[in-house]
Structures are given as C-alpha cells and as structure tokens.
Amino acid sequence: MEIQQLEHVATAVRRDIVRMVNAVNSGHPGGSLGCTDFMVALYFEVMNLKTDDGGQVVFDMDARDEDVFFLSNGHISPLFYSVLARRGYFPISELSTFRKLDSRLQGHPTTAEHLPGVRIASGSLGQGLSVACGAALAKKLNGDPNHVYVLMGDGEQQEGQVWEGAMFAPHHKLGNLTAVIDLNGQQIDGPTSLVMNNRDLGAKYEAFGWHVEHMEGNNMAEVVTKLKESRQDPDVPTLILMHTEMGYGVDYMMGSHKWHGVAPNAEQLVTALNQLPLTAGMSDY
Amino acid sequence: MKKYEYTEKKDTRSGFGAGIYELGKTNPNVVALTADLAGSLKLENFIKDFPDRYIQCGIAEANMIGVSAGLTIGGKIPFATTFANFATGRVYDQIRQSVCYSNKNVKICASHAGLTLGEDGATHQILEDLGMMKMLPNMTVINPCDFNQTKAATLAIAEHDGPVYLRFGRPVVPIFTPADQKFVIGKAWHVNEGTAVSIFATGHLVWEAIKAGEMLAEEGIEADIINIHTIKPLDEEAILESVKKTGCAVSAEEHMLNGGLGDSVAQVLARNLPAPLEMIGVHDTFGESGTPDQLMIKYGLTADKIVEAAKKAMSRK
C-alpha cells in the first residue's frame, strides 16, 4: 500500500479510537493514538498475513506460515481492535461493542472471546516479550521462515519479566523476532523519567545482545522502511525504539500522560474528530 | 481387602523423567523447558536424545511460563519444569494471564512439592500450590502418588488439550500402582472397598492411607480408600458414592488445609451430602528443615494420624 493510503487508514483508525473510548467513557486513547502509524504499517504493509484466494485475511491460532504480532501493552486495545477490524479480521461495526457487556472486545485483549486476530491475553504488563520469544522459537522449530513482532510500552520496561525475555531472545538466537518499544516518555503517574527512569534503553538492550534501531513512530514512511529492514539478521533479534508522541493527532492530548487512560467527553470528541478529517473512500464504523 | 505390596521405591519426579522421555520418542511436538533445574527434574535422557526440543531458560521462571505460552502458537506442547514453589507462587500472574486466561496448551510440571522436599526448608516447601492452581479457570490439577502413576499421568496430560499443573516430589516412595496403568484425568482410583469410613488421599499420602487401611482392618474397621490423583476436575461422583456407603470421611494430603483436596471434598459434601469430614494436612503454617520422614511425623501427615482421624469421623456420625 502507498504511504498516503496508509496515512488515510491511520486517520480512520484514530477516529475509531477516540469514538470508541468516548462511547464508554473509558479506555486508553493516548498510547493508542501514538502507536497508530506503527500498527497500520505493520498490518497493511509489512506483515506477511495468511489470506484466502480473494485476499481476505484468514485467522488461525497457530499462525503457521505467516508473520505474527503480539500486543504486550494490552491497554492500547482500541487501536488493536480498530486495525484488526479494518484489516478484515472481524466486522468494523463490532467496534461499537468495545468494553460493553457480552462483547468480544474486552477492555484488554483476550482469547477467551475468540476474537479473530488475538492470540494471547495481555494487560498485566511485562508478559508479551516472553510470549513472542516462545512463538519465535516455535517458528524456528517448525522451519517456518516468518517473523514475530511484539509491541511494548516504555513504562512497561520497568517490569522485571521484560528483562528475562530480553536475556532469552539473543541467547536462543531469535533473529526472527522484532520487539518495538513505544518510547513516548509517559506513564500513568507522569513522565517516565520521573516515575522510574529507564535511562538508556537502547544501551541496555545492546548490552543484552540485541540489534538496536531508532525510528520516528509518527512518520509513516520511516516506520514502513525501518520495520522492513528489521528482518535481516537470522541470529540476532532486533529492538526498535519507536519515538512517538502520546495522543498523536489530537492536539490537546499530545505529549501528556493525562490522556493515558481518560476518555474525551462529547465536546472534546468533536474537537478531536475535526482534527482527523476522513479522506475519500474511508468511513467511520 | 486388597493387599498392596512393593518391591521397589523411587521418587515421583523420576516417574516424570521417564514419562517425558517416552513422550520425546512418541510425540514430536513435545518440548521440555527448565529454569536451571534440568537434573532435579530428571530431564537428562530427554536432553541427550532430543537436544533440539530442550529449552534452557535460566533462572527466570516468569519468562519460562510466557515462552511456553508462545510455543503453543505453532503447535508445540511445552512442558515447563521447575520446583513447585517457583512453578506456581512465583509466577501466578504469568500462569493466570498468559496460560489460563489465554487457554494455552501448557503443562506446568512441578517437583519438590510439599514438606518432603526436606532439609532446604520452608522457602522451598510450597504447601499452597494446589490451592492456587485449582482456583484458576481452565486449569487441570494432578497430584500422582508414585513413580508409575506419575509416569502415566505425564503421558496422559500430553493428550489433554489445555493447561495442566502436574505436581510431584523428591523423596523415594513405594511403587504400588501398576506399571501398565491407563491414567484417566479426573477419574479417581478406588484403592480399597469398605463401608465404615471413606479415606480420600492424594500424592504421597496415598501410601499412608493404604497403611492406615491395614491398621484399621486389624481392628475390624473397613475403610473405603480412594486415590484422588486429579484435584481438578474433581471426581465428585466417586466421592459421593463412597460417602453414601460410609457416612463419614477423612481427607489426606501433603498440602495446606486451606485450598487443598480436603477443602474441595468439604465443598462437595456440604453441597450434596453433608457428613462428618476430618482433614489431614498442614494447618496454616510454614514448614521447616528436617528429613522428609521427620517432617511428615511432626506435621501429622502419617498413617497413624489417618487412623485417628478415621475413628474421630466415625464417632461423629
């Protein structure tokens, strides 16, 4: 897909995100908006996904012979659901059920509701990298040349389990794994540097044996290029420090931890949607 | 009354080691993981013959559980092995979210459970693991009683699709179940028939229950002895059928009373067939250093105590 088309999809996804969290007055718009360009690029351009003859994506839990993505920071579920729906895993109309009773779109992603596209529950932080390591190892054991991606938050790096996974991946030569950290510098209680300073995450991962890259996460062209380049070394996993702005695309949300887990009210929603105009051919859910 | 004898003693963890080696030969999807305890978990033969399917995780149990969940995506059947303390309490949230809530086909195989770990003391003697694991939706919980039953259970859980917690131990104990047994998950094993009192025992306490049955028989008391090797799903039918005959029961386990087998039996009886129940287990306390035999005596997990409990249960009828 052309970069401009990807940007159009990203705008539609951002509209979904603010509408979804507004509708239930809960959820996490900040990180969702910041990671939108990354996840759209991944699902619409970068990943090799299983499709039928008509080009429709096909979901099975085993993900054999295709790339696979895990969302470790599960609270940015509005983004994940919107991208999955718009990529064709389930009807876009179902986005209106987000966080409501009896919905497949739980507050945090789960396999319990059998929503196509979701392969692991996430929300309790720090677990996704380990799961991605396991899936990457399974691909190696199966002789499957496809790639595994995982997205984590920068605040999430404070969880000890992350560093157990960080140690495991290079040791087991998981070159088929790309881990991406959403480096927005914010977490619930404030700037990450003040809550618990992660300092130089790149140097840490390098010391653990990863190949480390930086990427401007709100620049679609760069995101596509960097993600494609990350699949080079067969024996060394890649860590991408993705510089993003929390709340990207909605001016009053940008750069502040205050919109980590707060929904816009009706008036704020109108303002947000005005800043995210739909392009021809795209529509809201 | 059926008489049980043994010619050999072995540790139940070696039953697991024999089982996983057998699975290595018969099931190419089985992979074995450990967190720096390959020797203690008796993985040597598996590692020697199937090195590509052996995954050393280092001393990082949380990651091991997550890696196991990920391995199932791609069709692997991971057996994650370590001591029971590090396989449950240390990684409860990882098991809860990445394994049970996600309903992944992960087998958590835990050795050195309970007091019989011995001299290492209470830091390693977990007595709460069955309770934690049985509370988790989707989890199957199994606590076999000897080498042969542990081996059979290891083979059986590979055929079961879903999360399993398999608990075994370190001390050598009599081998009294058949080598060729078919292990059916959730189906209790009727050890001996009787009408005076039911004895529901699990793990290392099954042999003690058999000895207690012999002591009771000498006094003319016929105990109905049932081995509850599967803590969850519990064979409620076997429990109720037995107590219908006997009218009273004893539970026996190497575990905390809170959350253990006795607690599950009490629920079944209270809801369906109220009857006196005496419970043999550890009473809301940590263990300590000592030999396995010394500890089992000090904490009252012996045939003598089962006999006392049986008589007390009968007196309350």
TrEMBL record, chain A:
Keyword Protein transport: no
One of the Pfam families matching this protein, by short name: Transketolase_N
InterPro entries: THDP-binding (IPR029061), Transketolase_N (IPR005474)
Keywords of this entry: Thiamine pyrophosphate
Cofactor requirement: thiamine diphosphate
Segments forming domain Transketolase N-terminal: 9-270
Family affiliation: Belongs to the transketolase family.
Protein name listed in UniProt: Transketolase
Organism: Rudanella paleaurantiibacter
Taxonomic classification: Bacteria, Pseudomonadati, Bacteroidota, Cytophagia, Cytophagales
From TrEMBL, chain B:
SMART domains per UniProt: Transket_pyr
SUPFAM superfamilies in the cross-refs: Thiamin diphosphate-binding fold (THDP-binding), TK C-terminal domain-like
Cofactor(s) for this UniProt protein: thiamine diphosphate
Keyword annotations of the record: Thiamine pyrophosphate
Pfam family, one: Transket_pyr
Domain of life per record: Bacteria
Residues covered by the Transketolase-like pyrimidine-binding domain: 10-175
InterPro entries reported for this sequence: PDH/Transketolase (IPR051157), THDP-binding (IPR029061), Transketo_C/PFOR_II (IPR009014), Transketolase-like_Pyr-bd (IPR005475), Transketolase_C (IPR033248)
Family indicated by similarity: Belongs to the transketolase family.
Name this protein carries in UniProt: Transketolase family protein
Species, as recorded: Rudanella paleaurantiibacter
